Amino acid sequence: MTRYAHITGWGAAVPEKILTNDDLAQIVETSDEWIRSRTGIRERRIAAPEESTATLASEAALKALEVASISPSQVDLIIVASSSPEYLFPATACLVQDHIGADKAGAFDLSAACTGFIYALNMAASQIRTGAIDTAVVIGAETLSRLVNWEDRNTCILFGDGAGAFVLQACEEPGGVMSAVMRSDGSGAKLLMLPAGGSRYPATTETVRKGMHYIQMSGREVFRFATRVMAQATREVVEKAGLTLEDVNLIVPHQANQRIIDAAARGLKLPADRFMVNLERYGNTSTASIPIAAVEAVEKGRLRPGDHVVFVGFGGGLTWGALLAQWSGPLAERPARRVPEIPRLHRARGLMRRARRFVEGLIWGRYPDEK
To answer: Is the pLDDT of residue 139 over 50?
Structure first.
């Protein structure tokens, strides 16, 4: 029996507080025109004090489970991809597991920066296809507003907070996750990083004074890298699935910069309307950007059951990757498939009945239906 990993539920959670470009202009030397012309971002969401990566992740997960019409107790695995986890340990996924009441689920975090959601989806799909698990919840969640230097206009204008989640379930019907590409280049690690807070630079007065606990980015180099790998990864994942770009209904890219998305569209020779873009309202939410955009694509009717969709992204590490799936929808809404009877199966059932009657004859001294 061949098993497939279908995406059957989806949900997103974003903070209520909106920080516009005009608001940022009151904090750092910038303007709405400067930000929009360079990034395409108009506003972003900022977590309230009582909100965190774990609370946003839990809210998105519960919404996704509701769409899939399954209970938390049916979940076998929870993966949280995040660049701003609740703690170094325990894993944010363990906190989510407790918050949502998934009492039978294993849980772990995955760190691959903004590409993390794609990596996590592929990991969960692989577990389902091998038969190790039946149901997984994959979450991308961030509170990056707490990791940016609000005096550095090159980074504070980019990032926002939010979470998105998918439910993956095993199914015998072909579809779901079809192919994936995961790549990395550690030689570019310093181009996008948060230097301090780990074992290399534990927190000290000096690391705090130098601002080493804030996101640091070489914007120009990251831009060059991203414009190269987005189109490359998309082509590779489509070819790996045995499809062509014409078979792809929608591309959901990492929402980092409008110019990067435009460059990918040109590189693939595809029209802009084949890409789902919502970064003008959320900014760069790192691992959460792809699932949040996918949820909006479903809500707007741009992503329907049967559609082929490519998720593609890049991030610190450096990492990049893509995943191609045939969009499914809740399994509860899919018509049951009738398995045709097989003659050999009839014969096997007859043999089983005869064997049972023989054993009963040995026990009772006669067949139970004998008078």
So the answer is: yes
In terms of domains, do 201 and 97 share one?
yes
Tell me, yes or no, whether 134 and 177 share the same domain. Answer: yes
| Structure confidence at residue 332 (pLDDT) | 65
Domain housing 303: 4-333
CATH number for the domain harbouring residue 260: 3.40.47.10
pLDDT digits (tens, 9 = 90+) for 160-174: 999 999 999 999 999
Look up residue 284 and give its DSSP letter.
Answer: B
Q: How far apart are CA 217 and CA 214, in angstroms?
A: 10
Residues 146 and 274 in one domain: yes
Give CA–CA dist 299/179, Å, rounded: 25
33 and 130 co-located in one domain: yes
Residue 129 exposure: Cα atoms within 13 Å on the Cβ side: 16
DSSP annotation of 72 = G
Tens digits of residue pLDDT in 152-162: 999 999 999 99
Banded pLDDT at 334 (limits 50, 70, 90)? low
Angle between helical axes of 32-39 and 258-268 (0-180°, round to 10): 30
Same domain, 262 and 368: no
**Total domain count, the chain:** 2
Q: Are residues 354 and 319 in the same domain?
A: no
| Whole-number Å distance between alpha carbons of 69 and 48 | 30
Dist CA 278 CA 45 (whole Å)? 13
pLDDT for the residue numbered 15: 98
- Are 362 and 270 within one domain? no
Q: What rounded mean pLDDT belongs to the chain? A: 92
**CB atoms closer than 10 angstroms to residue 224:** 14
Indicate if the alpha-carbon torsion angle 316, 222, 60, 233 is positive or negative. Answer: negative
Residues classed as catalytic: 114, 254, 284
Task: Please tell me whether residues 61 and 166 are part of one structural domain.
Answer: yes
- Between strands 106-110 and 77-81, the pairing is parallel
pLDDT tens column, 210-258: 999 999 999 999 999 999 999 999 999 999 999 999 999 999 999 999 9
